[in-house]
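Morning. Coffee machine broken again, so started the prediction first thing and wrote up yesterday's gels while waiting. Chain of 654 residues, entered below exactly as on the submission form.
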Amino acid sequence: MIERGRRLLRAWNGRPMGITNNAISGGEFYAPVIQAETAKVTFRNLRPGAREWAVRLAEQVYQLEGAECRRLLGHADKRLNLEYTRIAQPGREARNAGPTGRQLADAEGAASIVQYYRELDPGRLVVTGAAGAGKTVLAMELMIALLEQRRADDPVPVRIPLADWPSGMTFTDFLTDVLHKTYRWSTRQARRLVENGWVLPVLDGLDEMDPPRANGKPDPAAPRARSALRGINGYYRGLRPGPVVLTCRGEVYDVLAAGRDSEESRRLLDAVHVQVEKVQRATALAYLAERAADLARWRKLFAYLRQRPDSPLASLLSTPWRLCLVATVYGADGHPDELTRFRRAAKLDQHLLSLYIPALMKPDPTQPSIAPPRYPPADVHRWLHHLAHHLRTSGEDGEPRTVLTLHELWRMLPRKSRTLLDMMTVGGWLAFNLLATRLPLHRSATGEIVYATISYGVVGMFFSRTRFWRVPRSLGAGARMWSQPLGTVLQLGLMSGLALLMHAHGWYLGMTSTAVLPLYVLVLGAYVTPSRPVRSPRGVLRRDLVAGVASGMLLGFISPFGLGFDAHDLVILGVAEGALITASFTGGLSQLHLAFVLAARGQRMLPLRLGTFLDWATDLGLLRLAGPAHQFRHRELQDWLASTPLPPDRGSAH
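Came back before lunch.
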């Protein structure tokens, strides 16, 4: 019995058990040996299932983020190996940090970012640098390496754009909400994963939470960023600070640290602060030469940079983002030496960004198998402008955001989308009544048709104004309802009581048949948050559409059941009423998205096949995936597009 208890305790905390003497009874009492390292022990393993959930979460994150990370990072022989240097902190700094490191391990023995991070105690890391210095790239390199090398007790790294943190929400609630919405965990399971220490938040873009001042300088007040720092600093696992990776522009982080607020709102405590260094001149030239299709066109620029290493242009071309812009814009044609006349970063960025979209859309001679562009560059610019402008004020209270969630873009035109949706619903009613009189039925069904039109029409108008309409659905979630006995029993009991009440009053309608009550539970279950994450933004709408049509058709076949119609009439009425129900309210989020796309297309704001366009822009390199959502490839690109409604011509760009 004692040995069994010993094995059980060992399984609970994952550590060897010792033997201590029980002075009262004189016998041996088995218990954990209390040592100095006990402070490192968390209680995340005490609850069964948490370890298995973490394994599944790691698989989900790798499926959603792995391919995007690899596409953004590029091949190992065609990307920059970023360097970073530790910045000393005034106090409360993580231990075991080296002075320098590299993105990837090199022949000189420099530690890779994953090796550097694993040595930290506690695992808190702040990555800063200039705009476009490669902070997100470094964080993604760390994230993908941690996933590929994950050990059984390691927390799962989850990339989270900080700009999407709603004001007033605690950090734990924010992490829970991300797992719930992005990876489709139930709120209860997501909270257990967070509270038991199985999540490593990779927080991207602290500098993107607050807009800058009118002169472009960081705002020292920065209320959202300071509130975020307070929340992150309060993130503990037991008695130890919880692991966190945070990225921020160096200028913004310095301004925050220099403030007079409390220490918890100025910087991340108990963390190591590293700064991404500028790309060395030799490394930058080698990178551009490797990307160039014709080196002859680049000779003047290369000679200028070698002869003038301290020139403004050499300093400007020291970040991965600007080097990527230059390589893309002039990779196939053009005159790179025209860059030598630029002295200011703003002018250079405007010039490169104005040519970036047309350059990406040019056929690549090295990859002739790639299909030619399917959209005019001017239309692409205009559509992306509207999306970028929407992100400026898409959050609560007009806060900026960085993530484009396809099924939530209807908020760009909320009133027009709802109005058009109502018009589509009314049109469905009229079409149903017009066609219903011509249905080849064996007996008249005028009463059933009038009842269906009025009842489902009222229900549809009601639900179109509620949050219920805007929740993504999945048939898989409906099937899972049967694995939750309590919820199933309660729903069956509620429907049975309704059936008895209606039978008592002589209301013989389809929903009163107890034989079809289990089908209602399946329909209601479709409105439970899906249990598995989707791999693409359009996947959310596809699942929602399938669930909506299936639910509508199922209700349509149930509705005339028990009214005395024969099998022939039941089938015809079922199809007709199913179409009406789908158009009235079970179409849900998919129908609202369709109304939005039609409204946006009518104003020439966005293309009709919006999801296809966003996927195309991601493949092209204008956008990147962030789980089941999109982000602009770089914040500079997003800000420039938001402030530039029309593409500048080549002459104005020069």
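The CA atoms of residues 150 and 477 lie 30 Å apart. Going to sketch it on the whiteboard this afternoon.
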